[in-house]
Amino acid sequence: MSGENSATYVELRGVMTRASAFGAIGAKNSQVAEDYLKEMWGNEEAGGDGISVNDLAARMGVAASTASENVARLTSWGFVTHEPYKKVHFTAQGRQIALGMVRRHRLLETYLHDRLGFEWDEVHEEAEILEHAVSDRLLEHIDEALGWPARDPHGDPIPDADGRIRTGATVPLSEQRQGEWVTVARLSDEDPQGLRNLDEAGIGLDSQIRLARLPNDEDGAGCAGNTGPAGEQVAVDVQDGVGTVNQVLLDETTANLIRVRA
What we know:
Distance between the termini: 10 Å
Radius of gyration: 20 Å
CATH topology of the largest domain: Arc Repressor Mutant, subunit A
CATH architecture of the largest domain: Orthogonal Bundle
Strand content: 15-25%
Order of helices and strands: EHHHHEEHHHEEEHEEEHE
Shape: globular
Number of domains: 2
Number of strands: 10
Structural class: alpha+beta
CATH superfamily of the largest domain: Winged helix-like DNA-binding domain superfamily/Winged helix DNA-binding domain
Number of helices: 9
């Protein structure tokens, strides 16, 4: 996960073009494969060592039986390995395809946000649609036009054209020691409303924040994106560009979107 001071480059043997990756399996099958492999990468990026069929089904939003059928297809195409009742793992080729899809998705999110003016809570769904249609050539032009960005609007690292992805240690805000100033490194894009709540609270990438109070520490009032009891709120101090500190209250779901540099 992103972090400037502790960042390292991980070589993953380059990205693979869609044409060379999928050959003759067909456009419909290639899109299914891309989606599954990208979700597997998301699990691995979060620290997972392989993924169960049930967990993959949950990430894809499908029944376990559907995921099992598609894992069998991915295995037959040489993209993953899987034995009954064990976890699914990438092959070298499958990892290359996944890395290429992550690159596509995050570059598109960045282009939509930086050049077309989409809000950061809007770009994920748009990129999900576009990533299957954009050619490799156009993607390289997008990368160049953006100045070869290292991260997307949510702070997620973008693999470069040589297959390197910059990584660094981050931790959830909830695991951070209270009262210590930290830098926001990544924001999960899985909850658009939560991203809007963070924007309303003045929290974005590179914001300087500190955890002031966890839920149920004490009573509070008012909360960005939350109408529940005060005890369910997370109090966060936010420092603006001129050093002024403001305290905001977030619901737990919104606060859990934040990862900070370790």
